[in-house]
Amino acid sequence: MVGRAGLYAVLLANAVVVAVFFAQAGFASNALIVLGRLTGLYAALLMAFQLLLVARLPWFDRRIGMDRLTSWHRWTGFSVLWLLLSHAVFIVFGYARASSLDPVNQLVDLAGTVEGVLRAIVALAIILVVGVVSARYARRRLAYETWHFIHLYTYVAVVLAFTHQVAAGTTFASSPVATAYWYAVWGVALASVVTGRLVLPLWRNLRHRLRVTAVVPENDDVVSVYITGRDLDRLPARAGQFFLWRFLTKDRWWQANPFSLSAAPDGRTLRLTAKRAGDGSAALRHLKVGTRVFAEGPYGAFTTLHRTRPDAVLIAGGVGVTPIRALLEELHGHAVVIYRVATDQDAVLYDELRELALARGAELHLVTGPSVPDRLAPRELARLVPDIAERDVYLCGPPPMMKAVLGSLRELGVPKPQTHFERFSLAG
Fold first, then answer.
1. Residue 348 phi, psi dihedral angles, 5° rounding
2. Where would I find the H helices in 246-333?
3. Is residue 259 situated within a structural domain?
4. Which domain holds residue 190?
């Protein structure tokens, strides 16, 4: 939790610094303009923080997890939207109060006479569109690729907003120290994005030159893809992590999908196992040996890095068994593995799990049957693992199953620091 506390501390410290610079710059006589300038400053600070959240820097990702960073990104994004709307409303109505113009004409006047305001209006319009398509109702109805393409325009809005701040921000230019501070904040944020989203993936893929070596169907709906490359022993991947995989075929080179490693990295081969759930995962079965692969990652905090107890419980649901199987290969101490599926035929990689459990002295429980009654309710979990509150618990599976199991763990008194899970939904 050091990474999470550190991020909060950095954000709070910068919020205090912004307030100090704002006070030093002096207050306008109009209270609405004062509020407008302050909300604009904090919107700019949160926009820079947003860039840090989506930069995919390995240090943050290993300690916090991509799912939590993405969740914070979502809520920070809506905070930015409301702050920018407040900034625009307060500024326009504040200047309208000091003039004889109505708010609409005042906005037109500001756009035509004050440098940078028109750019700010365009930036706000872009962020409004992104906010609308990011709402849950719209997000569920858009293809991921469409939503992601629209979302990328946020970077255009960030650049426009920053140039507006440089041109019109009184606090930005109130002193050489304030100017240096704002350039430093935005410089760190932009450098983080360029490093994490562009430089690091390009460098790693040029170094490792990944290729498909085998495609193995596990059943009618699930396939495993084996990948090799150069110097894989130097790739900092761990069991439980995932990559964004881009297979460079004519029809799929532009599409990236997150798949977990289904075997612990051994320095020679990487393996992913995926269930057919859409066009991207369905196409894996038809990959040819030798296909070039561009992989972004490794990502995720679902690793042994956060172990707090010597023994563990690994709970998998459906194809969520893939990172669980990899973790079992790496875990030390006694482990209990619980694999929840509807039928025996749905138990992908079960033979491998059984062999691994036997080799490592772990207990393996295959739990089958319908979801009602709940086979992973508190009483059932306590029966399978009487000392579950004394163990680390790793959980991966479909969202409804994970929600139910997390509720069971709370009822059984498993402390939060001992509960490890990750949802693989990405933004930015």
1. -65, 140
2. 279-282, 321-330
3. yes
4. 1-204
Q: Are 238 and 303 in contact (CB under 8 A)?
A: yes
Structural Rg of the chain based on CA atoms: 25
Task: Round to whole Å and give the CA distance between 403 and 384.
Answer: 19
Name the pTM for this structure: 0.82
CATH of the domain at 290: 2.40.30.10
Q: What share of the chain is helix, strand, coil (3-state, %, to 5)?
A: 55, 15, 30
Report d(CA 422, CA 239) in Å as an integer. Answer: 13
Q: How many domains does the chain have?
A: 3
Same-domain check for residues 129 and 258: no
* Residues 228 and 178 placed together within one structural domain of the fold: no
Which helix (H) or strand (E) is 364 found in, with range?
Answer: strand 363-367
* Euclidean distance between CA atoms 272 and 211, whole angstroms: 13
Q: Please report which helix (H) or strand (E) contains residue 312, including its range.
A: strand 312-317
Mark whether 350 and 239 lie in a shared domain. no
Q: What is the pLDDT along the chain (428 residues), one digit of tens a residue?
A: 446 677 788 899 999 999 999 998 887 778 999 999 999 999 999 999 999 988 888 888 887 877 788 788 888 989 999 999 999 999 999 999 988 899 999 999 999 998 889 999 999 999 999 888 888 777 777 776 677 788 888 889 999 998 998 888 888 888 899 999 999 999 999 999 999 999 999 999 999 999 999 999 998 889 999 999 999 999 999 999 999 999 999 888 888 888 999 999 999 999 999 987 665 567 888 899 999 999 999 998 899 988 999 999 999 998 899 999 999 999 999 999 999 998 888 899 999 999 999 999 999 999 998 775 678 999 999 999 999 999 999 999 988 899 999 999 999 999 999 999 976 544 44
